[in-house]
Design a protein that fits this description.
Elements (H helix, E strand, L loop, with lengths): L7 H12 L5 H18 L5 E5 L3 E5 L13 E4 L1 H9 L4 H6 L3 E4 L13
Parallel strand pairs: 1-3
Antiparallel strand pairs: 1-2, 3-4
Helix pairs in contact: 1-2, 2-3
Pfam families: SCP_3 (PF17844)
Protein name: Bacterial SCP orthologue domain-containing protein
InterPro entries: SCP2_sterol-bd_dom_sf, SCP_3
Length: 117
């Protein structure tokens, strides 16, 4: 299990603020990182990299471990989309269909792992 860098209380507070429409950089960064840590905890592994620039990335999902270069299974999205996906305000299929998420690789799928909060 990965060590948390965002205290759970701080993450939940930032997430609540972000869901109420607060868009400050610190709030968004904390909420995004908290949710990435939640994902890594619930789906431990190193086969998929989830990127939410500019705030963070995590490796998750059991499977072949990636160690060098660009990972073969990458998911990338913006902070608002990540928060919406992680909280259930947006479903995975819609985000893919609307090109709000870019997913490459055979394991780059978070369907069934979301929502987190």
């Amino acid at each position: 299990m990965a060590k948390r860098k965002v205290a759970i209380e701080d993450g939940r507070a930032a997430l609540a603020a972000a869901r109420k429409g607060e868009t400050g950089r610190t709030v968004l960064a904390t909420a995004v990182r908290y949710l990435l840590e939640e994902l890594a905890e619930r789906a431990p592994g190193n086969s998929v990299e989830v990127r939410v620039p500019p705030f963070g990335a995590t490796q998750c999902v059991a499977g072949p471990r990636h160690t060098r270069g660009t990972p073969p299974n990458v998911i990338e999205t913006d902070p608002a989309t990540w928060i919406a996906l992680a909280t259930g305000e947006l479903d995975w299929e819609t985000a893919l269909a609307d090109s709000r998420v870019v997913a490459s690789g055979s394991r780059a799928d978070l369907h069934g792992l979301l929502p987190l909060a």
